Amino acid sequence: LGANFSYVVRVGARHSLVTDGPYARVRHPLYAGLLVYFAGVPLVVREFWSWFVVMGWVGVSVAIRIRREERALEARFGDAFRAWKARTSLLVPRRRRP
After folding, report:
1. Residue 68: strand, helix, or coil
2. Choosing a second label site near 91 at 20 to 30 A (CA), which of 30, 68, 82, 98?
3. Which of 90, 67, 70 is nearest to 11 (CA)?
4. Does the CA dihedral 28-29-34-40 come out positive or negative?
């Protein structure tokens, strides 16, 4: 993402829509990785009950962030974003057909 990365949801005039690399298949690969990471932490520390708390908190936070990002991207990139959205999945790559 380079200069496109920000901790705050914002799309600047110099930002570009990244659609190559992992973004060619998934719109939010960083959040997918984050969810996998946080899903594993309670299992590693053997506090299985905390999985529900952690995944609930992280899942809701990620869902809110994704919604905000996608609204901002659609507002900035319009049809280009909608076309990219149509050919990619949110978090998990779609199965390719032969």
Report:
1. helix
2. 98
3. 70
4. positive
For residue 35, the one-letter residue type is L
User: Which residue pairs from 91-96 have beta carbons closer than 8 angstroms and sit at least 24 positions apart in sequence?
Assistant: 91/26, 91/27, 91/28, 91/29, 91/31, 91/32, 91/35, 92/26, 92/32, 93/25, 93/26, 94/25
- Quick one: tokens of 73? 């991207």
Using an 8 Å Cβ cutoff, are 66 and 90 in contact?
yes
Residue ranges in 3-78 assigned as alpha helix (H): 29-44, 50-77
Single pTM value for the model: 0.78
What is the chain's length? 98
Q: For tokens 């390719």, what's the residue?
A: 96
In angstroms, the CA 8 to CA 12 distance is: 11
